[in-house]
Amino acid sequence: MKRAAFRLQPVLELRRTQERAAAADAARAARNAADADRAAAEREHALATSALPARLSSGDFVAAMVLLRAAATDASDARALATASAEQAAAVRAEWTAAAQRTKALERLRERHLEAQRHAEAAAEERAADDLVTGRAGRTDPREVPWTG
User: Fold this and answer.
1) H-helix or E-strand spanning residue 1
2) Contact at 8 Å (CB) between 56 and 21?
3) Half-sphere exposure of residue 1, counting CA atoms within 13 Å on the CB side?
């Protein structure tokens, strides 16, 4: 018996390729989010550990305050970037999950197809065996001894 090919095999291969690409994108986005979080944490730590000297002239004090304000803005921007990167990573991870679900659905269809083929082959073998048995019963060869089990 000739096996029928799974007609959606090209689609399944495409879905597997899409899932691998989505997995790579998710890994890249997670790495970018981790890098952004690390950079934000470093800037926040640098800002938290900075201190003004005890004695400063008024000009130096104003310059130090401007630098601290710029550092605070940088830390805030870095944290915002880290948050956005984490949200982006979550969105990309959701796309990966969706791609995996589409692939899994086609894999289940393929499994059903293979199971149907196995069932059809078993039924064909059973019919062939039945035909053999019923075919012998109809023959009247005098040399053949009937089975009386």
Assistant:
1) none
2) no
3) 15
